[in-house]
Amino acid sequence: MTERYYLTTPIYYVNARPHLGHAYSTIVCDAIARRKRALGVETWFLTGTDEHGQKIERSAKKAGSTPDEFAAKISAEFSDSWKRLGLTPDDFIRTTEERHKRGVQKLFATLRDRGFIYKGHYTGQYCVSDEAYVDGEPGTVCPDCGRVTETVKEENYFFKLSAFEKPLLDLYERHPEFMQPESVRREVLSFVRGGLKDLSVSRTSFTWGIPVPGDEKHVVYVWLDALANYITALGYGSDDVASKAKFEKFWPANVHLIGKEISRFHCVYWPAFLMAAGIALPHQVRANGWLLFDQSKMSKSRGNVVRAESVADVLGVDALRYFLLREIPFGQDGNFSFDALVQRYNGDLANGYGNLVSRVVNMMHKFFEGVVPDAGTLTEAEEKLHATATATIPEFNRCFDDFDFSGALKCVWSLVADVDGYLTATAPWKKPADRTDADHVALQARVLATAAEAIRVITGLVYPVLPTSAEIVWRQLGQGEIADAVKKNFLKSLAWGGLKAGTKFGEPAPLFPRAEKDTAERMEALEAENNKSAVEAVGGPIEMDDVKVAPAEVAKKIAEPVAKVEAAKPFVAEVASAPVVAATISAPATTEAAAAPVAPVEEKTLITIDDFVKVELRVAQILVAERIPKADKLLRLEVDLGDEKRQILAGIAQYYEPEKLIGRKIIIVANLAPRTMRGLVSHGMLLAASLEGGVPVLAGFHEEVPLGARLK
Ligand code: ME8
Fold it and tell me: What is the C-alpha separation between 328 and 341, in angstroms, rounded?
């Protein structure tokens, strides 16, 4: 029987346009799927979009659209983007499709029929952004995204999650590979060991969802709806024979590849639902780390996203694939930067693999009219390369199968370097005076046939990661279409010795032209242009626009010690035209200043103590800090005053990374009249020193101070 392999990406919410973060998970799956297919494994690669729920309903409303129109538009952006990137999912499921709806209703009914669902009431906190129930009092902040939760009071159906505490712990123990990497495993284990409460699996306060069968005022909780895509896409819930056969063939999934932030849903809720429904469990949930941009998670809400197309249009899709898989150890967070990308591209692709291919192919044409010669008698150098290449194949496979894509590519690039070194050492382009013509031709034949064979092995190995380039090289090596090789499962038998003497090489073609100095800027410009046109195209629903993060200088600015302190300014100075109160730091008195006659202070600059006490200055702690899309300067803060929480907008976005502010104690003017900016209301101002150029430095305390304490 043919081996089969089913892998899935998360299905992406349609409230945000596809960005590099989404592309990352999808590209990883694409590389795995391509390799499996080329190994002769019958592969099914699923991706899609998650379109129901309160978050989408609200985003659609904000965009002045109906949820279904809105979802269709963004879903199409995802599928178009995957096409443009040359990704090869076998199926793209939308949760608004009939086939999905049918399957979800069947799953719900099955859970209910088997006694795992009961009706009750939920009063508690809900995070709309994560579509997650959160324990705590009203005002509680979501532990995952840091947003303030909403209080929900609804009639709901509950799933008996508590009954699965023990079965889940048993599963994790029996199958340590069920969830990986270890960090995720530990986190999930400690969550479950902390005790599981029953889970509300329906909502009644809005309608954008799949109706609960038999009780249509309820819609199915969006995570139960979304997780079910992994089975409904295969045909679960369908009576159709072909669908049933597909489900039989591919379920259970080999891997659900996800971002680490949704581990709980996949490692706790999903297996519990499946156990309750009597459906087999997936073999593994694998989490990728986060792609960071300017040191924080690339995400729409932080406004620091980059679109995959901006990279692909300038350097090509393969460059992006290579960078993501080589640069970031899978499972860990990794930084994306245009400069690092260009560096990797030039170093590993243009100067490395690309240059090697071009040298060998050109020499083959120049010295042998493009026909592979017989290598003749081999020397130790060729035997060594042969041995290294032969050892590289299983090493690459081991790393790749272990999701260590970076390690896999590293070992191939070490082979690239060896072949480069071999060429340099043998220098087939140069005939020393003491070498006969016949000897030189023999050397050229031996070296070029050997180097070309090494390139063939390298190209086969990197095909899943660099499919477009591998296709070109395959032709240049006279191997025909790589798609045909894939159909013949060429990776199954990839081994040294496949390049036969007499093979006619294809014409040389450029592979990775060296990236010029302005490449990073060109990508940035494209990114800015993309963002602009995206805003225009959607008509500007602020919430969902991908807005680029503040300039990179910001981080630098924060790191740089601020040298000069501005001379005295009037008291309430606004930083960056936002309500940050800048407490003035006077310039340190110089000797001249001290010696100078004291100028008479104008009466109007003085206030009485009664004036001062009118200003209510209080200690507050920052609970949430986030960028506001399309506002370069403003941060939205949620602060805790001990007895109340409130929202404040502050013009410090260019100087402070939001994540670093969380937990910080600050001083606010608490009795300032509310002010609306960018559609958000600011209930107060924070205090900061205003340094040269308006650079703010937040006021704070060295000793412990209780929240809400008044400053007098
Ligand atoms: O969570 N780095 O959808 P979503 C790495 N609909 N991966 C990233 C990323 C980043 N900066 N940003 C996004 C949802 N991703 C649910 C899933 S599944 C049944 C339902 C990737 O649109 C990563 O795979 O928020 C992450 O888990 C996913 O996109 C989140 O996409």
Answer: 11
User: How many A from CA of 258 to the centre of ligand 1?
Assistant: 7
Residues 616 and 578 in one domain: no
Query: Which residue is closest in CA terms to ligand 1's atom 29?
Result: 22
Task: Determine what percent of the chain is predicted with pLDDT higher than 70.
Answer: 88
Q: Examine the domain organization and report whether 578 and 617 are in the same domain.
A: no
640 and 545 share a domain? no
Residue 263, ligand 1, Cβ within 6 A:
no
Question: Which atom number of ligand 1 is nearest to the Cα of residue 226?
Answer: 19
Q: Which residues, other chains included, contact 113 with Cβ-Cβ below 8 Å and sequence gap of 6+?
A: none
Cα 21 to ligand 1 centroid, rounded to whole Å: 7
- pLDDT tens for residues 91-106? 999 999 999 999 999 9
Does 53 sit in the ligand 1 pocket, CB within 6 Å? no
* Distance in Å, CA 348 to ligand 1 centroid: 29
- Give CA angle at 75 (69, 79), nearest 5°: 145
Q: Cα 415 from chain centroid?
A: 30
- CA 12 to ligand 1: nearest atom: 22
Nearest atom in ligand 1 to the alpha carbon of residue 293 is 11
Same domain, 31 and 172: yes
Kindly state whether residue 559 falls inside one of the protein's structural domains.
Answer: yes
Residue with CA nearest ligand 1 atom 23: 259
Give the distance (Å) from ligand 1 centre to CA of residue 84: 20
Helical residues (DSSP H) of 345-379, grouped into ranges: 355-368
Tell me if 308 CB under 6 Å of ligand 1.
no
Could you tell me the distance, in angstroms and rounded to a whole number, from the CA of residue 546 to the centre of ligand 1?
Answer: 15
Segment 617-633 shows an average pLDDT of 84
Q: Measured from the CB, is residue 548 less than 6 Å from ligand 1?
A: no
Q: What is the CATH number of the domain that holds 614?
A: 2.40.50.140
pLDDT at position 177 over 50:
yes
Pick the last residue of a domain from 493, 527, 552.
493
CA distances from 250 to 287, 406, 678 (A): 21, 28, 49
Among candidates 620, 622, 634, which has minimal Cα distance to 679? 634
- Count CB neighbours of 91 within 10 A: 14
Decide if 12 is inside a domain.
Answer: yes
User: Does the Cβ of 15 fall within 6 Å of ligand 1?
Assistant: no
**Number of separate domains in the chain:** 3
Q: Predicted confidence band at 467 (pLDDT cuts at 50, 70, 90)?
A: very high
Q: Indicate whether 164 belongs to any domain.
A: yes
Residue 623 located in a structural domain = yes
> Which tops the pLDDT comparison, 559 or 494?
494
Residues with Cβ < 8 Å from 204, sequence gap 6 or more?
154, 155, 156, 217, 218, 219
Is the minimum distance from the CB of 230 to ligand 1 under 6 angstroms?
no
Look up the CATH number of the domain holding residue 249: 3.40.50.620
Sheet-wide strand order for 215-220: 202-203, 215-220, 211-212
Instruction: Pull the structure tokens for residue 94.
Output: 């939308």
Report percent pLDDT > 90 for the chain: 71
